[in-house]
TrEMBL record:
Keywords: Heme, Iron, Metal-binding, Oxidoreductase, Peroxidase, Signal. It comes from Dokdonia sinensis. It is found in: Cell envelope. The lineage of its organism: Bacteria, Pseudomonadati, Bacteroidota, Flavobacteriia, Flavobacteriales. Coiled coil: none annotated. This is Cytochrome-c peroxidase. One of its GO terms (molecular function) is metal ion binding.
C-alpha cells in the first residue's frame, strides 16, 4: 500500500509539473496517461484490490449480490417482488376509501427517476397525477393533512440497496451489523429483533406506513397465489400469503436493482473507451482531491457510515408539506435521533451516487437541484444548516481547493459515467391486477397513458 501511494504521488508530480495552473486540472495529460493515473488512483482507493473493488455484479448473479441470510435471493422471489413493488393493487388500506388501489411502492420509487421520487417530496396516498417521471404527482390539498402519505425527508433511490445492511436516512431499520448495540431504539421495530437486515425490515414496515395490504382478497382477486406458492413453498400455508412474505420478495427484488450498465462499470471491466477524457479527469478528482471516494466507496459508491454535511432539512423548502405529528427537531438530528448518541447528531446515511442526474433533488432535505451545486457546496464548506456544530461536520466537507475545471469534470463524471441508462430492464410490462402503474388515480392514468 505504501509503495502504491508513493507511485501515485510520483506520477502526479510528473504529470503536473509543467504548468501548475493547467495541469492541476489534468487537462494536458494524454489519454493513455489518464488511464494509467486513474488505474493507480483506483488501486490506492481500493487498498490494492483494484477495479474489482468497485465493480457491481450482474443482476442475475445472485451468489455475488450481498443478501440477508434470512432471505436468500431466488428467481421466484425476484419475479414476485418485481410485480409487487409496482402493483397498485397493493394500495388496499388507504385512509380515504376513494383512494383504494391508486398507489404502490413504485409511486414514490418510479424507474423514470431512477427508483427515487420524481419530485422534491414523494406523495403516496393523496397524490394526484404523475407527469413524465413523477414530477407531476401533486398533493391533493383538499385532502385532510393527516391523511396524506408524505414523509419529512427525501425519498431515496432503490438502486444498489444490496450494499447496505440498514435502511432509512438515520439507519434505524436493520437488526445486525451496523445497528449492533442500538437495541434500545427497537421498541417499534420488532423485525430488528428477528435479525432481518434493513432492506427486509423496510419492506415490512413500509407496507404499514404507506397503507399497502396483502390479504386473501388481494391474493385471489389479482391472481398472485401461484407466485407466492412458488416463492415461499417452504412457508406454512397459513403464513405464506402475508405482509412478511411480500416484504421478503420485494427486498429480494430490490437487491437486484444494480446500476451495473453505467459507463464507469464498463470502464472498470476493461472498456477504456467507455468514458471520455473529461469523465476520466473527473474520476481522478473523485479519487483524489475531491475526497469523494472516502465516503462514496465500494461497488455502490457508498460506505455503511453516517456523515454530517450540513444539508438543510426538508421544512426549509417552500413547497414542503410537514404533517403536524412530525417533530422536525428529531428529523434534523439524523442518526442521533435513533441512537441517542450526541456524536451521531446531524449525521445521515451515505447515499449511492449512481443515476443522480435522473433524480433532480439531492440531500436528505432535497435542498439542492443540481449536481454541480452540490459539488461546489462540498468544496466551499459553508453548511446550509448553521445549527450543525463545526465539530460534527465531516472531514471531507470543505477546504478541498478544487478549481472550476475540476468541479466541472467531477460533475461530468458523476452525471455521465455513473448513469445506467437502461434501468427499464428491471420493470414489468404489466402487473397482475391490470391496473395502471406506478400510479392509478384518474389524472395519473392520463399522464402515464393507461387510458
Amino acid at each position: 500500500m505504501k509503495q502504491t501511494t508513493l507511485l501515485l504521488s510520483f506520477l502526479l508530480l510528473i504529470f503536473c509539473s509543467c504548468n501548475q495552473d493547467v495541469d492541476d486540472d489534468y487537462t494536458t495529460i494524454q489519454e493513455s496517461e489518464l488511464d494509467l493515473l486513474l488505474e493507480r488512483s483506483i488501486d490506492v482507493a481500493s487498498n490494492g484490490e483494484g477495479a474489482g473493488f468497485f465493480t457491481l455484479p450482474e443482476s442475475g448473479d445472485y451468489n455475488s449480490i450481498p443478501q440477508d441470510p434470512l432471505n436468500p435471493i431466488t428467481q421466484d422471489k425476484v419475479d414476485l417482488g418485481r410485480l409487487l413493488l409496482h402493483e397498485t393493487g397493493m394500495g388496499g388500506k388507504p385512509k380515504m376509501n376513494d383512494r383504494k388501489f391508486q398507489y404502490a411502492c413504485a409511486t414514490c420509487h418510479p424507474v423514470a427517476s431512477a427508483f427515487a421520487s420524481g419530485r422534491r417530496q414523494g406523495v403516496g396516498e393523496g397524490g394526484i397525477g404523475f407527469g413524465l417521471k413523477g414530477e407531476g404527482r401533486l398533493a391533493d390539498l383538499e385532502m385532510p393533512l393527516d391523511s396524506l402519505d408524505v414523509q419529512p425527508v427525501r425519498v431515496p433511490t432503490l438502486l444498489n440497496l444490496a450494499y447496505q445492511d440498514v435502511a432509512l436516512w438515520d439507519g434505524r431499520f436493520g437488526g445486525t451489523g451496523t445497528n449492533a448495540g442500538t437495541e434500545a431504539g427497537w421498541d417499534l421495530i420488532p423485525e430488528n429483533f428477528e435479525g432481518f437486515q434493513g432492506i427486509e425490515v423496510q419492506a415490512m414496515q413500509g407496507q404499514d406506513e404507506h397503507r399497502l395490504l396483502i390479504d386473501e382478497y388481494f391474493i385471489d382477486t389479482f391472481n398472485y397465489r401461484v407466485m407466492f406458492d412458488a416463492a415461499f413453498g417452504d412457508v406454512p400455508e397459513e403464513e405464506r400469503y402475508s405482509r412478511k412474505t411480500a416484504a421478503l420478495a420485494i427486498a429480494a427484488y430490490n437487491r437486484t436493482l444494480l446500476s451495473n450498465e453505467a459507463p464507469w462499470q464498463a470502464y472498470l471491466k476493461g472498456d477504456l473507451e467507455a468514458m471520455s477524457d473529461r469523465e476520466k479527469r473527473g474520476a481522478i478528482v473523485f479519487m483524489n482531491e475531491g475526497k469523494c471516494v472516502q465516503c462514496h466507496t465500494g461497488p455502490a459508491l457508498k460506505d455503511r457510515s453516517f456523515h454530517a454535511m450540513g444539508f438543510a432539512d426538508f421544512d426549509n423548502a417552500p413547497d414542503a408539506i410537514v404533517k403536524p405529528d412530525v417533530d422536525m427537531s428529531l428529523v434534523t438530528r439524523g442518526r442521533g435521533s435513533f441512537t441517542g448518541n450526541p456524536q451521531d447528531d446531524y449525521k445521515f446515511k451515505t447515499p449511492t451516487l449512481y443515476n443522480l442526474v435522473d433524480t433532480e433533488f439531492y440531500g436528505h432535505g432535497s435542498s439542492f437541484s443540481s449536481v454541480l451545486d452540490v459539488v461546489r457546496y462540498k468544496n466551499n464548506g459553508a453548511p446550509q444548516n448553521t445549527n450543525v456544530p463545526s465539530s460534527q461536520l465531516a472531514s471531507q466537507f470543505g477546504n478541498l481547493g478544487l478549481s472550476e475545471n475540476q468541479m466541472n469534470d467531477l460533475t461530468v463524471f458523476i452525471e455521465r459515467s455513473l448513469r445506467d441508462s437502461n434501468l427499464v430492464r428491471y420493470v414489468p410490462e404489466e402487473v397482475n391486477s391490470g391496473f395502471c402503474f406506478p400510479a392509478n388515480d384518474a389524472q395519473a392514468r392520463i399522464d402515464i397513458g393507461c387510458d
